[in-house]
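RETRY 2/3 - previous attempt timed out on the joint model. Re-submitting the same 1094-residue input unchanged.
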Amino acid sequence: MAGRSIMGLFKEVDDAVEAADKLKENGMDDFEVLTGSPYPEGAFGEKVANHRLYVWPLVGAALGFSIAILVTAGTQLAYPIVTGSKPILALPPMFIIAYEGTMLGAILSTIIGVIFESRLPRAKLGLYDPRITEGYIGLVVVAPDGDTDRVDALFKAANATDVKLEPVGA
Amino acid sequence: MQQRPTLTEIEINRDLLRPTLDTPMWFYGLMAFLSIFAAAAIGAFAWAINHGTGVYGLNRPVMWGFLLVNFVFWVGISHAGVMLSAILRLANAEWRRPATRAAEVLTVFALGTAAMHPLFHLGRPWRLYWSMPPGYDFGRGIWPDIRSPFVWDPTAISTYLTSTALFVGLLLIPDLAVLRDHSSGMRQRMYSAMSLGWRGNTRQWKLQIIAGFLLSALILPVFVSVHSIVSWDFAVQIAVEGWNATIFAPYFVIGAVHSGVAGVISILALLRWMFKWENYIRDDHFDALARLMIVVAVAWFYFFIIEFMMGFYPNEEPELSLRNLQLTQWPFNAAFIVFALTSFFIPVPLWLFRKVRRNVALMFWTCVLVNIGMWLERFLIIIPSLMRKQVLTFNWGSYNPSPIELILVGGSFAMVFLGVLTFVKFFPIIPLADAKEGEIMATEIRVGKVMVPAAYREE
Amino acid sequence: MHNGGPHGHHVDLLVRTPEQVNEEVLSWTTRTSSKYWLLVLALAGVTVLGVIGFIMKASDDGFDSHMPWGYLAAGLAFILTTSLSAPLIALAPRFAKAHWTRPISRIAEIWSVAGLLALLILIPLLVTLPSAEGRNTMWFYDKVAEDWPVGAPHLYIALGLIFLVINGFGLLWASAIPDFAAARERTTGWRKVWYTRLSLGWVGTKRQWRGLRAGLGVLGAFYFMMLVFAHTYVSFDFGQSLVPGMRDSIMPTWQALGGIQSALATVIVTAFVIRAAGGFKDYINVNQFWSMAKLMLASSLLWMYFWWSGFIVLWYGKTPLQQDLLQLMWFGPYKTIFIMTLLLSFAVPLLLLMWNGLRKSIWGPALVSLFILSGAFLDKIRIYVSSYSVENVTAHVLETVPEGVTPDSSDIMMLMGVVSGAILLFTLAVKFIPVISMWEVREGMLLQEIRPLKRLPLKVLAKPE
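RETRY 2/3 succeeded.
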């Protein structure tokens, strides 16, 4: 999308909500809300973020289970020695290890999935302000056709404490 | 319910980051003090390596002593973490907020400390290498025997340790971003790198919240499996009286929850005293945790009764002689009485009183009592059973812990506290994001003339 | 499935005045259609069939041996794990101050009326139960002192179950007192007479409410403990202790846990039916099913875990006795039934309930509940029929693994009678006791509301001390 990003910084939550309403009225409903607290999604009337996180644990679990079964079956067959009158391919112990493998696979891939779906890690913070972690709300929007002045005015009208522009070429 | 203080984000940052950004001097003193004990434990271990395991009080047939008792104890404590954070998260309990991370961090360090005990016990820790993949004898095709519970156990513990540590780390990201924004120099660069470029947009917060629920649900089954597998280290053997019981797995798990939640309550009381966090770890929280403790303690007691009764049920001589030893012979009779009183009969009736539940000092001490009792429980399960392992009486043995073992056990407590304090020095132990979310979600509903505390609920 | 707000947030709440709640619930309670009486007739018919089956069994096999009565013992255990466990679903959330349980708590409590049936079934079972002499029981018989405790186990089982049933009735009555009082004002004739008597002059003073809450707390805690105890002695005395040498300490706890799972399933199925039959679609909505489905998923996982915990110890030990026990209970004649149970009580619930879309629906949990109830039914048959099939209960160890016992026609008739008898008692009770706890619903309306958090409508829940 063409255009530069612009961020309005709001001290009061209600001002930010007003500004978000104004953005939507002006056809800019694809804005990003930066907060220091986890507001429930939709509190600012923002768009729902889609994700596919639920696929991750399933894939990880399948992978972990397969590896665990391969390893447990493989090692027993490679070193076939009867202990405790258990069969060479003793299913209950295999199940226990496979269970741990499944869960480890699911958890590891979920953690990777959360980071990936959060679009992290990112080397540059982009438009950001440290005051956001003190309770300020940041609204970031790509100004259509580079018309940053209009958005700037809109933010200021809604009591923005500060308005920041993305540096050109960033 | 008491009037709930309202806190702004700035206040929350200031209060909860105080130990990290503005560490008081006594904190370093405390750490130095604990380090002495930890160092003593390391010294004792070095002594044991140098002189061999003969320095332990182990005596045929009692080849598992205090170190294994302590191992089970710390694995048990480590169960509080996920029990609290996962179950309360999944149940959407508002009062979980200050307790979750403390519980998870206690898990990590208790589990790490527990994992050291088998090494202490082996006395030749470097031989561990041969039981790890790089040390396998590939040339001759010799592989570990997965039919042994001693293979299941490290598998489970390493899964649990990895998962919990990563879970803590993942949920730490937003708080690391706060630290990044509030520090400078070296520290800022460190926190910057660790916070992975967190900005706090809707997508990131949403995934944090989902991650909290989803990973809780995934770690919960691991947590159950860990102490179950620890119990199978004992229970699948048919040779030792008193161990071969089918109930052992859930009995160990519920006992672990009992001692673990008590451990978390003790830690929370200490944190509240040390950092004056009355506004965060409130009386309400102790009240709710104590109610949970009543339920857990009663459930544990039910399992204990069933397990103990089953000792008499088959009416067989070896089992009866074991119960005789546990109940009537010194010092086990004394240990048994103390165990019964401290783990159940003193604390639970006290917790029935609201005044006790909301009294931080009483909650701290009753929870310490529970853990004294639960340590003795493991002692009573392991040592007397081994003393009566053989059928013929001339093969019965005794066990006295050596000073080296006592130092190691004492040092393990110092190590866990040192670990938790080190975490507190670098990271917020009460999750800032959770505290802030609690502020957003807290509201009230008017019913007639009273305002009833209420919370927004996302479904 | 319908969503009330944006972003898939489910924010529908009951919108009614307190009078409307009373009106709607009571008009359904006091109205009986011809369809209803047809259902009662059908259930009564099947129950009579069960009685005939019982008479057939008694005249064919008599009461001298316990062995022919395995299927009836399974019936008792099934009533215990479903109807008598159901009130738990009203109790536990009440302790946790959860709001979702309000519209279904009475449905759960009314199931305690099936206790009457349990007491009836208990009589022949106690008559045929072998004495504690010369075998292992959980009652320490002959261990501490000779012939002591007197009357074990029969007397204690009887007392335990009687107390449980009385406690259940007490709980049901106590929780319905405010609703009886409301009904007293809105009915005439015999109903008014009875509602007046049962409401004990309730007018709803502050003192009365406080007393009610305290009473419900105490009765609830007692019921919980009595129920767990009941699972313990039923699984011991009618199961484990009939098998010489059997030592499976997890069994009573596993059965108690199974009770929680089946209780959820029972309440879900009944809530589904009552919702449709009574037109209570606004009262009982997807929230109740969703909340219970989550608990049902957890209890299904735990069910498997408890079974596995016992199994791995028996499998690993490999002593001859342990191998015989595995044969008797799981992998011998009842293998098919056991595999079916594993599928119905664990695998299918897990594979279905792991999807939130299905959990958060009305038909999904109801469907899974039917599977779970069938699983529980088969499980009871497997445990008790196999235990009852051992002939020499005073032997030192299990001498041979007995062959499987297939049900004869009288067994099948008795089991049908047990199930329909329990449903009959419930069906009769719902036309007298208000099937929705009106006072809890009215209280719930005070403590919940929809309020926007900035631009997002959310549910607000108040939790009074």
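Strands of chain B lie at 442-447, 450-457. Closing ticket.
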